[in-house]
Amino acid sequence: MTDTVVDAARPAGVPPVALEHVTKTYGVGPGAVTALDGVSLELQEGSFTAVMGPSGSGKSTLLHCAAGLDAPTTGRAVLVGEDLAGMPEDALTRLRRDRVAFVFQAFNLIPTLTAAQNVELPGLLAGRGRDRRTTDGALARVGLADRRDHRPSELSGGQQQRVAIARALATGAAVLFADEPTGALDTRTAASVLELLRTAAAQDRQTIMMTTHDPVAASYADTVIFLVDGRIVERMTAPSADEVATQVSRLPSRDRGR
Ligand SMILES: Nc1ncnc2c1ncn2[C@@H]1O[C@H](COP(=O)(O)OP(=O)(O)OP(=O)(O)O)[C@@H](O)[C@H]1O
């Protein structure tokens, strides 16, 4: 295996994402909600994991705890070898900025910046400066070389999501967290976005954790985990979309999501 930016700051053999017996409770007393109830998992380098489950089963909370956007109530979250518990906020911010990339359903691009400026923003914020080759390379990879100077409002939803993915690729982040990345896209556009994510894992060795409601989207991942009431109830390896859909229909819940 070749050394890449992705590996540079992490001891060999340490999973980029690890959760140990994580619980997350929102609120106190009779109104408290247990969003995660003892979740343990390890994601290996270059793996692509989809998290499925009914609405309210804890998918986003799981992703947020793994990414250091939210703190577990009990248990441990370790990101690229760093224990997030008790980490000072500025160190956590640096870790997220330098080693992690996010892709959200709502794209989260800065509307006043062009596609290229959006892609280079994390590097500028991290003090790495402008790197036109990396920016243009990432935009070319997502098929948007000719849109580099367009603002988000001049791009379709699928194009905006591809800019967000170009931004994630350009950072060389070890871990890419994607929360419903295809939720706002049509089927064909979603397929191209998922293909890009799959390549980022397989080729660039980025570790990807993606929440989704869509069995087809989940089938692009190499592992699918199923949450019910904050617990992992099932794992599938390289399932087909039909197998995922069948498993979803078997989940013990009143509400199977959208
Ligand atoms: N900030 C919060 N305060 C209180 N309760 C919360 C908060 N965030 C999430 N919850 C609750 O935690 C549970 C899990 O929510 P979460 O958003 O993780 O589920 P999800 O599986 O991602 O749902 P969806 O598929 O609808 O996005 C839900 O019952 C939710 O209402």
From TrEMBL:
CDD domains: ABC_MJ0796_LolCDE_FtsE (cd03255). It comes from the Bacteria. Residues 17-254 form the ABC transporter domain. Coiled coil: none annotated. InterPro entries: AAA+_ATPase, ABC_transporter-like_ATP-bd, ABC_transporter-like_CS, ABC_transpr_LolD-like, MacB-like_ATP-bd, P-loop_NTPase. Keywords: ATP-binding, Nucleotide-binding, Transport. The keyword Transit peptide does not apply. GO terms for molecular function: ATP binding. PANTHER family: ABC TRANSPORTER RELATED (PTHR24220:SF685), IMPORT ATP-BINDING PROTEIN (PTHR24220). This is ABC transporter ATP-binding protein.
